[in-house]
Amino acid sequence: xxxxxxxxxxxxxxxxxxxxxxxxxxxxxxxxxxxxxxxxxxxxxxxxxxxxxxxxxxxxxxxxxxxxxxxxxxxxxxxxxxxxxxxxxxxxxxxxxxxxxxxxxxxxxxxxxxxxxxxxxxxxxxxxxxxxxxxxxxxxxxxxxxxxxxxxxxxxxxxxxxxxxxxxxxxxxxxxxxxxxxxxxxxxxxxxxxxxxxxxxxxxxxxxxxxxxxxxxxxxxxxxxxxxxxxxxxxxxxxxxxxxxxxxxxxxxxxxxxxxxxxxxxxxxxxxxxxxxxxxxxxxxxxxxxxxxxxxxxxxxxxxxxxxxxxxxxxxxxxxxxxxxxxxxxxxxxxxxxxxxxxxxxxxxxxxxxxxxxxxxxxxxxxxxxxxxxxxxxxxxxxxxxxxxxxxxxxxxxxxxxxxxxxxxxxxxxxxxxxxxxxxxxxxxxxxxxxxxxxxxxxxxxxxxxxxxxxxxxx
Length: 459
Prior knowledge:
Elements: H1 2-15, H2 23-51, H3 56-92, H4 96-133, H5 138-170, H6 174-198, H7 202-227, H8 229-232, H9 244-276, H10 280-296, H11 298-316, H12 320-345, H13 349-356, H14 363-385, H15 387-393, H16 397-422, H17 426-450
Helix pairs in contact: 2-6, 2-10, 2-11, 3-4, 3-5, 3-9, 3-10, 3-11, 4-5, 4-9, 5-6, 5-7, 6-7, 9-16, 10-14, 11-12, 11-15, 12-14, 14-17, 16-17
């Protein structure tokens, strides 16, 4: 047994090491991101389970607004991701002045975009909810309005955390970004227990918990930047001084990331409006099945996040060999992890349903959707979501954006509508089309990765 472990460790060391990047460095960067992603998904999982005690109308409202929330949050998260790429390449090139200015621009840019979105949608949230989800029941719409208002108020605070984490990951300080995320999400879960389960405040309890935890996260975001002042070389007061040129540069680099997120999440919202027309039980089925599926995607999603600074630093150091080798290793490992976790979770399905406590009649539908996703997970997911992280880190984000746009709207939205509604296959048909779209998009990304153009753009 000891020899088997030794051989396995040796193989992992060979697969996840390069000329300049060592196995120890990769694992030091990767494990905190996996834990961070685990708590993020677990938080969503627990969140859905907690609100289930308030009924299917509350579950449906949280799920509907959650989809719109992801669409908006990913816009200012894209600024953090753009900052990660800029800082990682500067770190690889040992350009410390650019690290300083990019850090400042990343935090400021995230806050600017988040505040703009918050103000705009606070004025328009009723119209947006009616436009997208007007076909839902009145109880669902009332819960959705309250939940969306509370989420929008938290955006500027969350943006500070996103900008800080993006900067920390760019220089490989993933342990620090993990601590910040854990702190914020732990307080959120704690306050959910108090307000949702303790005081039975339902949606209002979620909103209160969210805003208090985001305020705590924002305060400690600045604390974390202060603790890493030796690498970022910014004082807290510097973040209140705006360098328009640097801010514009960060936002410009972030635009393709934001557009890709908007197009991808926009397609999800369109699918959500289709699902709304199928009834409250179908909305709840989608919410619970999606939460379950996300559990097996924790590790490969984290691999995609960790691959950005790794490849960014390799590209900054002009080390293409390591960038290619480590990308292939991450994609393969992501597929293996998906299959393994899916098989481990399958026997736990009955226990999971007790946690969510859905109506008995929708449990078979939830199980059917999980099986559909499991069939495609190991084959197509990793190449569709982990591989493009390497392309983006090298500056090839325009190509990934265009590819995601076309595949999303042609296949997932267009074909999903045809199969789900026109042909009458409902939610299972929509999920089947989604899984097929992973394969189409992944094939295009793999073709791009085999060529040379993806790493030739200078940021």
